[in-house]
Amino acid sequence: VKIYYEIKGAGPDLFMIHGFAVNIDFNWKITNCIKALKDENRLILMDCRGHGKSDKPTDPAQYGAKMMEDISKLMDHLSIERSNFLGYSMGSRLTLNLLLSEPQRINCAILGGFVYPSPNDEQTTLRYDSYINALKAESIEQVKDPVGQEFRKFAESTGANLNALAAVMTGFDQESEKIPTTQKQVKAVLKKISVPVMTVMGSDDFLPGDKTLIAKLVPDACH
Question: Which residues pair with 199 in a beta bridge?
């Protein structure tokens, strides 16, 4: 799987991982994030597999943990041992997964627009199913669920490959079965993080769950 990336600016390395259904342009260029950060940071921007100018396999087995591995492999390709990270939504999830599995690779992390999945949350599974069905539908008119319809509309607006996105979501759904299943396990996992972490979220963000959970449990984190 070929991964497209760009490097902008100069300074400490900062990996920037975009959200679901978007890419470097939509998440970072249009929002002026690159313009705001490139004078003081060397920005490493990547289109995650299934997105943007990177390859877009439609097999769910090509996603899940493999998306996180792409980040590690790009770091190796660029001879970067450690880096600062800025993730948004899906990018925050990937950054957190890397932080838990390869903490030695991250100096500090900002997690934007992301809530840690609630253990045994049936609504999360139902939401994934709704999104996947919306992406797989032949047309948006066939999507009856209003949230799924908005999700499909957004994906279409970015010019994304809908079949690839359905595979991405299915891969995440399968991967979610491996997350800690009790509140006690969640706390134990997050308390192991030893690098500076900041979570950022709008007060009116619709994401369900405790928006401050990560900042509460990660030592010395802030929200």
Answer: 111
What's the chain look like in SS3? CCCCEEEECCCCEEEEECCCCCCHHHHHHCCCHHHHHCCCCEEEEECCCCCCCCCCCCCHHHCCHHHHHHHHHHHHHCCCCCEEEEEECHHHHHHHHHHHHCHHHEEEEEEECCCCCCCCCHHHHHHHHHHHHHHHCCCHHHCCCHHHHHHHHHHHHCCCCHHHHHHHHHHHHHHHHHCCCCHHHHHHHHHCCCCCEEEECCCCCCCCCCCCHHHHHCCCCEC
Cα distance between residue 36 and residue 27, in whole Å: 13
pLDDT band for 187, please (50, 70, 90 cuts).
confident
Q: How confident is the model at residue 166 (pLDDT cuts 50, 70, 90)?
A: very high
Query: Would you say 44 and 15 are in contact if contact means Cβ atoms under 8 Å apart?
Result: yes
Torsion angle (degrees, nearest 10) of CA 162, 98, 40, 42: -70
Q: Specify which residues 88 forms β-bridges with.
A: 112
pTM of the model: 0.92
pLDDT at 181: 56
Q: Which residue has the tokens 């900002």?
A: 110
